């Protein structure tokens, strides 16, 4: 197994996902959806919980990896004393079947490659029945069936299947692992080389649509490709990450399932996609949103399943030992039942920006949703909530939540004014002004610094968003004071934590690493505050935290110098994109992806 989160690379067919380690082992694979039970789960346990290894036997002197430009087709090149071999991995996009294909290519000399396949459906818990038929081996357990097609014959060795194959320069050996419902016929196999070619071309065509140039154009395109890889194509829903239970603290309990669609995360993603020129994806997400929140306003959730599912019960999987012993391993997410008032602002802001960009209609269902959400917000904005960070402690009046309530009323007013629609605009203006005055009275301390919750003293990195959403001008003294206080008091080796555990009871034991999105927010806040050189220096440092194929997790451990949290994380890549776009506009004279023109 790969020892660090950054040792993995993402494969995606825009419906499900896999993680491949530098050692050539696929340690995580879900079919048929991102949130389906995994059939390879070594990532959260051991090899006995399922993996698929293809790697040179014996000594490997160097490993180099890359995605083919603009794609999620991965090439891993291994150098050995006997020669050089490359493995090409991908999950073919929009084929008739869901599958992973792997091709071994001999580049120099003669290299013996070992193959080990351990299929364990239902999160590594079930040993399947296995049947061979010619070049195919069929693994069946309950509702799942996986079929391996290859000229290489894998033999049973205990509870795994193994083989060795020697490849010389110019030779190739192919493997196809396809999933299908076990009650349906085995799908016909496809030519692996043709699948790789078509998938490469599909991703290249998608990436070519990117309209972003600038100093970090390739970096932005790479991150937008990751965001596309986290999009559930059948519905347009965008999951927060491809994994569950990768820890925010090694050995700790802060292990959550992120394979769902947070309205907040998907909203930021929408804005990045619009800026990048991907209006089709923005339209699909907008439609997903309208379907997901359909129902009474008081039933709106903060998160949903990829198809808009509402029930996401949280449970623990005791048979898994956890990533580096980090338990419990959880699936589902109880946060779906929380009250997070900030979501109203993020959704209404995104809908307004989408409408202003010509993505979707401005009346009809969209306007009905805006009015319904504002009506609900009118009822709840004065209540304490669970906040942006989904704390599992006592509810409180989080300042960021109130700021985003102001955003929601503000964007509803703008929607009515910009598009000439009827609504109780005078009442919304009064509420907007009331929220604004209350935040400035109770959410700012004696130093003139925005604080985490009303009448408190603790800091919170979410308050870096105050200038980005237009609540105060970027040059306001309270904005500057907040930026400086967060840099001084919420900084670990120059990077930003969300809050200090000793000052915030979040209902959990232990601590966590720096939250990468917060550092990206600091980049934006500095740039808008006129400190562009500082912003660019921090941004360049954050870029260096990406792994060798350009991926970021949720958090970073500055003491151990390694990634933490679920991976790859949409929020982190969104921050990367937004910062690049803002810095290219030189300090925020125009709108950033997350900021609003005034």
How would you characterize this protein structure?
The structure is a single chain. The chain has 598 residues and is of the alpha+beta class. The chain folds into two domains: 5-184, Glycoside hydrolase, family 65, N-terminal domain (Beta-galactosidase, Chain A, domain 5, Distorted Sandwich), CATH 2.70.98.40; 206-584, Glycosyltransferase, CATH 1.50.10.10. The chain has 14 helices and 26 strands. The chain has a 15-stranded antiparallel β-sheet that branches. A three-stranded antiparallel β-sheet has the order 24-25-26. A hairpin with a 2-residue loop joins strand 7 (74-80) and strand 8 (83-90). Mean pLDDT is 92; it is low at 587-598.
How do the helices and strands line up, and which of them pair or pack?
Layout: E1 8-12, E2 17-21, E3 25-30, E4 38-40, E5 51-56, E6 62-67, E7 74-80, E8 83-90, E9 98-118, H1 121-124, E10 129-133, E11 136-141, E12 144-149, E13 155-157, E14 160-168, E15 172-181, H2 192-208, H3 217-229, E16 231-232, E17 237-238, E18 261-262, H4 263-276, H5 279-292, E19 303-304, E20 315-316, E21 330-331, H6 342-356, H7 364-380, H8 399-419, H9 425-442, H10 465-468, H11 477-489, E22 491-492, E23 495-496, E24 514-515, H12 516-528, H13 532-543, E25 555-557, E26 562-564, H14 570-584
Antiparallel strand pairs: 1-2, 2-3, 3-4, 3-5, 5-9, 6-7, 7-8, 8-9, 9-14, 9-15, 10-11, 11-12, 12-15, 13-14, 16-17, 18-19, 20-21, 22-23, 24-25, 25-26
Helix pairs in contact: 3-4, 3-14, 4-5, 4-6, 4-14, 6-8, 7-8, 8-9, 12-13, 12-14, 13-14
